[in-house]
Amino acid sequence: MLEERDVQIRGYKIRLPLDVLLVASANPEDYTNRGRIITPLKDRFGSQIRTHYPLETETEVAIMRQEARPASVGSVTVNMPHYMEQVVATFSHLARGSNQVNQRSGVSVRLSVSNLEVLGANALRRGLRAGEQVVVPRVCDLGSLAASSSGKIEIESMEDGREGLILENLVKAAVLTVFKEELSFEQVRDVLAAFEEGAIVHTGDDVPSADLARLVAEVPALQAPVARLCGGDESPAALAAAVEFVLEGLHLSKRLNKDITSGSGAATYRGRS
């Protein structure tokens, strides 16, 4: 009926006015992030339908906020800071441009939505263990992104066991990208000076937010970059997340050393001198 636009009834041609709404979907193999025409839909409906993944991270973040289900248990709430949303969206964008990811299979926005939910859930788990009522995802929660993306992104590698490493490197690249967008070197110069004088910071799942939040008062150089990231939120969870993000950004910029305790997820940041 869609193809011929009429119906034959015992030799009589009857043309029926159609008033229908068509909903169609396509496999990733049927289109690319460059917006190619979806061939199967064109063949069936004669329509010039074009599609593409979000070209800007802000667009992807808006979709993530709309579609993701916030994590919460009882009175415990999870507040997702904008820079962590940007990390999730940037992770997907970097994966779409990586030659280690099968671009024919694609990296859909559904992955970003799922990763945002998993990040919030992992932070909620940590907060429940620490007895916190307000939880903000931290860098130590980002390990969940590589785990949740495994199997949803098709990695092109000839070596077995490289999938996890490739995904972890994409997460690190996303953090570094967002860090450079959010903070300039001038804003963190004094933080580096504090670590060169011997400051040491321990982070990880088992470190309460209050402990990291106290560093803002103990290391005055952290106040300016942390305030910029928090955007007025002075809760211990928000301050802790911002502190950890600044330290991880400096580490990925090769300006701080980071010692990781295998198996526990705990980390220690120290100066390079």
Structure explained in plain terms:
One of its GO terms (molecular function) is protein kinase activity. This protein has helices at 39-45, 57-67, 82-96, 109-130, 143-149, 163-182, 185-196, 209-213, 215-218, 223-230, 236-252, and strands at residues 7-9, 12-14, 72-73, 76-78, 134-135, 200-203, 257-260, 267-270. It has eleven helices and eight strands. With 273 residues, the protein is mainly alpha-helical. It has three domains: 7-45, no CATH class; 53-181, no CATH class; 183-273, no CATH class. A three-stranded mixed β-sheet has the order 3-4-5. A three-stranded antiparallel β-sheet has the order 6-8-7, with helices on one face. The mean pLDDT is 86.
List the helices and strands and how they pair.
Layout lengths: L6 E3 L2 E3 L24 H7 L11 H11 L4 E2 L2 E3 L3 H15 L12 H22 L3 E2 L7 H7 L13 H20 L2 H12 L3 E4 L5 H5 L1 H4 L4 H8 L5 H17 L4 E4 L6 E4 L3
Parallel strand pairs: 4-5
Antiparallel strand pairs: 1-2, 3-4, 6-8, 7-8
GO molecular function: protein kinase activity
What tags apply to this protein structure?
single chain; 273 residues; mainly alpha; three-stranded mixed beta sheet; three-stranded antiparallel beta sheet; 47% helix; elongated; P-loop_NTPase; protein kinase activity
How many independent structural domains?
3
End-to-end C-alpha gap = 76 Å
According to DSSP, the number of beta strands is 8
- In helices, the fraction of residues equals 40-55%
Write the H/E string, N to C.
EEHHEEHHEHHHEHHHHEE
Give the low-confidence spans: none
Total of DSSP H or I helical runs spanning 4+ residues: 11
Q: What's the alpha carbon Rg, rounded to whole Å?
A: 24 Å
Shape: elongated
GO molecular function: protein kinase activity
InterPro entries: P-loop_NTPase
